[in-house]
Amino acid sequence: MTEKIDVCALASLARLEVSNEELTKLEREIPAILDFVQTIQKVAGSAPALAPTLRNVMRADENPHESGMHTNTLISAAPAREGNRIAVKQVLSRKK
């Protein structure tokens, strides 16, 4: 990379306070870092992308229970209810 990088302008854009010593050091280091990034991009760009292997992580339900079997037990344990539903304090309001 032969072009000069304006580290002072980069620091200003990033809203970083950089001392004169740091500016001098960064002016030497940033071109080498960018060259390294270009090398990595060239190598990474030529490798084929692998599709992720998908698999089901859910277990089979071997002993399903009857639907609604535990409903009355759960509702009777709730501190407040409205019919067959557990009543809870409203947290979010709906705008109309």
What would you note in describing this structure?
This protein is mainly alpha-helical. The chain has a domain at 7-46: Histone, subunit A (Orthogonal Bundle). The chain has three helices and two strands, in the order H-H-H-E-E. It has helices spanning 7-13, 20-46, 71-77; strands spanning 81-82, 85-86. Strands 1-2 form a two-stranded antiparallel ribbon. Strand 1 (81-82) and strand 2 (85-86) form a beta hairpin. The chain is elongated, with a radius of gyration of 31 Å. It comes from Candidatus Kaiserbacteria bacterium RIFCSPHIGHO2_12_FULL_53_13. This is Aspartyl/glutamyl-tRNA(Asn/Gln) amidotransferase subunit C. One of its GO terms (biological process) is regulation of translational fidelity. Pfam families: GatC.
Q: State the strand order across the main sheet.
A: 1-2
Instruction: Give the number of helices.
Output: 3
Please tell me what the overall shape is: elongated
Provide the low-confidence segments as ranges: none
Instruction: Output the CATH topology of the domain at 7-46.
Output: Histone, subunit A
Question: Could you give the order of the helices and strands?
Answer: HHHEE
What radius of gyration results from the CA coordinates?
A: 31 Å
Helicity range of the residues? 40-55%
Please report the first level of CATH classification, the CATH class of the domain at 7-46.
Answer: Mainly Alpha
Residue-averaged pLDDT: 84
Ends apart, CA distance between termini? 59 Å
Oligomer state equals single chain
The CATH architecture of the domain at 7-46 can be given as: Orthogonal Bundle
DSSP E strands, number:
2
Percentage of residues in strands: under 5%
By secondary-structure content and strand pairing, the structural class works out as mainly alpha
Question: How would you characterize the largest beta sheet?
Answer: 2 strands, antiparallel
